[in-house]
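Tip: read the tokens left to right.
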């Protein structure tokens, strides 16, 4: 429980065979702007999904947004709700421009990273001998990506030896010898969590060798996970042994540095904490407090990417959590219906893993109201098929968005949980301090 962000991303390798054709269909729809149309692309032959080891690595194109623009900039609006629900993963080829996305919560996330590392240290960041080359290569790749993709947000006058983060005001000294570990520099530039996995030459299996994970959402502490084989790390993941494990190593073996993929996972909570959400802080069998307003519930979407480093051959996983209040999605066709269906009828292991039972009885009257509202407004009918959205993984307004301005919800253009996040973090700090005195 709480290991969703990392575990589900790795599990994606084994789901490629199942989801590839669906991914192709929706990717083509996204390219053509067919979101929301009744007609769907015709399935064609399976596309080439893996590159050769010698194919050039995609490079980002500049996005000239300013620090002022970032304060109102929204990340792409993911809606990863699938039905029927299976323990698989819809994987999409990743545009390198969106490897490390920017949004209006960037500064808040960077500040929270610093707080978590200061308080918890090696519980959330660590590295083992043998990961040195991979960590340094990752730092260089993140630095170069930020300088190329966001030239007004990250600046350098000496070819990356010193990098000014224009959003936080910090000047990062990356001259040799490094003053801090490479993962610290990475965490000061990118808001994502990072996992570094390396293949062991003796047994040919993959192990977690370094990680910077301040935002696990639940109980994923990396201290006791470092050095462990992925099978051990995934021991609590539902249906891993029966459905996911067999093909995972095969997927890794084929992955080339030019292959970048992304997907999203999600669960529901009633807060915006990044370190540990309320739904995972409950004791086993406990229920949400009855006085929590249903409108406080949100979906935590974890936008995840996977790529390979060319020199060290390490596999890099990233995770970026973002919250969407259920109320802000109430006029998006089928969203309330899908959420209601999944939290009650997903496979038993998934329901337990995501702790749906702790809140679904409390939430269902509200979801019923939203479903009826969509029926009354004509957004759906009684005969509308309840299935994965044709716009997956993005919202139905994605096609009308502008990359220069961000992907703002036109119905809720000023939606922002920054103040709530800050309040919840302060409350968490008080509880943490009180627990130390006991």
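Filled-in amino acids:
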């Amino acid at each position: 429980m709480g290991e969703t962000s990392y575990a589900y991303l790795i599990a994606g390798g084994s789901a490629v065979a199942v989801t590839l054709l669906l991914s192709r269909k929706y990717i083509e729809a996204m390219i053509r702007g067919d979101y929301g149309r009744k007609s769907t692309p015709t399935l064609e032959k399976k596309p080439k999904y893996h590159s050769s080891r010698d194919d050039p690595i995609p490079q980002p194109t500049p996005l000239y947004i300013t620090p002022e623009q970032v304060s109102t900039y929204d990340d792409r609006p993911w809606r990863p709700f699938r039905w029927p629900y299976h323990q698989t993963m819809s994987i999409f080829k990743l545009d390198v421009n969106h490897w490390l996305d920017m949004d209006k919560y960037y500064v808040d996330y960077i500040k929270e990273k610093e707080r978590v590392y200061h308080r918890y240290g090696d519980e959330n960041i660590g590295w083992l001998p043998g990961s040195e080359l991979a960590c340094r290569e990752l730092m260089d790749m993140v630095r170069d990506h930020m300088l190329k993709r966001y030239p007004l947000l990250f600046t350098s006058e000496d070819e990356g030896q010193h990098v000014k983060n224009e959003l936080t005001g910090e000047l990062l000294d990356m001259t040799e010898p490094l003053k801090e570990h490479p993962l610290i520099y990475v965490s000061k530039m990118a808001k994502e969590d990072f996992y570094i996995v390396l293949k062991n030459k003796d047994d040919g299996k993959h192990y977690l060798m370094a990680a910077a994970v301040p935002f696990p959402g639940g109980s994923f502490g990396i201290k006791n996970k470092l050095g462990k084989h992925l099978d051990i790390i995934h021991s609590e993941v539902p249906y891993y042994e029966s459905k996911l494990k067999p093909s995972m190593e095969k997927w890794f073996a084929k992955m080339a540095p030019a292959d970048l993929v992304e997907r999203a996972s999600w669960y529901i909570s009633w807060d915006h904490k990044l370190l540990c959400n309320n739904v995972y802080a409950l004791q086993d069998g406990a229920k949400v407090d009855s006085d929590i307003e249903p409108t406080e519930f949100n979906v935590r979407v974890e936008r995840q990417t996977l790529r390979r480093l060319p020199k060290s051959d390490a596999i890099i996983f990233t995770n970026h959590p973002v919250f969407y209040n259920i109320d802000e999605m109430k006029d998006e066709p089928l969203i309330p219906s899908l959420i209601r269906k999944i939290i009650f009828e997903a496979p038993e292991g998934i329901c337990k893993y995501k702790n749906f039972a702790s809140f679904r009885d409390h939430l269902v009257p509200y979801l019923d109201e939203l479903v009826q509202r969509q029926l009354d407004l004509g957004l759906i009918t009684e005969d509308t098929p309840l299935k994965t959205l044709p716009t997956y993984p993005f919202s139905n307004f994605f096609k009308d968005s502008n990359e220069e301005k961000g992907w703002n919800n036109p119905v809720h253009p000023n939606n922002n949980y920054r103040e709530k996040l800050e309040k919840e973090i302060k409350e968490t700090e008080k509880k943490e301090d009180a627990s130390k005195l006991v």
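The mean pLDDT is 87. Residues 4-437 form one domain.
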